[in-house]
Amino acid sequence: MKSNKMSGYNLTGSIHTISVRSYGLVEDVPTELKNVISTSAKTNGTSKSTTSIINPNKLHGEIYHYSELYSVMGEILAAAGIDEYSLIRADLRLDSFDPKHYEQYAKLNKYLISALAVTYSVKNCYRSTDLFSQAQLSIAIKNRHFEAENYDKEAESGGSDVAKSRLELRSKSFEAENLPNEFTGHWFLRLDKALTNLDRVQARYNDELIRLYHEGKDADPCQFRSVTDFIIMYKDCIFTKAQLIDLLSRIPEVGPDKAKVKAENHKKRYGIEFFSLNDMRAAVGEIKRATIAFFRS
Predict the structure, then answer these.
(1) Would you say 15 and 76 are in contact if contact means Cβ atoms under 8 Å apart?
(2) How far apart are CA 261 and CA 244, in angstroms?
(3) CB of 52 within 8 A of CB of 80?
(4) Please, what's the b/e burial string for 88-127 (b: 16 or more CB within 10 A of its CB; e: otherwise)?
């Protein structure tokens, strides 16, 4: 990555939604809370419980301070008649208000989310694109305990939201007793562990890319005309120079002897964005900074 690019990876942390489970039924939700809280009841024998999904930002406006969130959540829960509850899900949003942010950092966020997927053996991993423009709209991973998603918030909201790009970290199985410990504790550990598996991410992508190359090189209709076409086509799946060299060394038309020279020539002639370990550490550092700043405010 260009040396000065990480200076633009600026994020603002806050909570998007919180889900709680309470005993009994939540009834007669006040009219002013209809767009703030949605409830669903569950009956198991004689036991009844209610799951409430709460978007505190819809009560008085966007919340960017934890102290304000704490106050607003108390107001919502009291108005809904919820006294005792347990946290079952929370979504931390890390937003940028720069219209260019999503496109500029989509590949970096893809690398980081892929590292989480590989580290925790996540099976449900997907990418969505616009039907007509083919522009990437989001990438996401999901398992029983957590989700991570990066999406084009401007496209998702039709331009109505002040945020233009969003990285969202979601906890679905709480081990911590409160929100700060969940996101500055468990999520920080996940991110740190993901950084130790970047080599595995590159290997996983290369295994898939070499399969795609062999399937497509003689396909009818033609998928790509050359190795160069193939690399350009899948440039957003190649994150380091070492990964590109390894990939090229496994392509029979190039081989180990020519892989390094071809990788260097491709970079010079066509351009391809690579990331160092320091780049990824800086990205995680910014995520941590934005998260801590929110919970300390």
Answers:
(1) no
(2) 11
(3) yes
(4) bbbbbbbbbeeeebbeebbbbbbbbbbbbbbbbebeebee
The answer on pLDDT for 45 being more than 80 is no
Q: Tokens 């929110």 correspond to what residue?
A: 294
What's the CA gap between 12 and 221, in Å, rounded? 46
Residue with tokens 């562990």: 193
Instruction: State the helix-helix crossing angle for 241-249 and 256-270, rounded to 10 degrees.
Output: 130
C-alpha span between 244 and 257 (Å, rounded): 14
Q: Who contacts 253 (Cβ-Cβ below 8 Å, separation ≥6)?
A: 227
The secondary element (H helix, E strand) that includes residue 171 is strand 165-171
- CA–CA distance, 110 with 163 (Å, rounded to integer): 19
Query: What gap in Å lies between CA 259 and CA 251, rounded to an integer?
Result: 9
Asked if residue 69 has pLDDT above 80, the reply is yes
* Spatial contact of 201 and 118, defined as CB atoms under 8 Å apart: yes
Rounded to an integer, what is the distance from CA 119 to the centroid of its chain?
14
Tokens at 292, concatenated: 């801590």
Tokens representing 142 are: 């999901």
C-alpha closest to that of 61 among 14, 105, 24, 25: 14
3-state secondary structure of 156: helix
- Phi/psi for 183 (5° steps) reads -90, -30
- pLDDT tens figures, 113-156: 999 999 999 999 999 999 999 999 999 999 999 999 999 999 99
Residue located via tokens 């081989």: 255
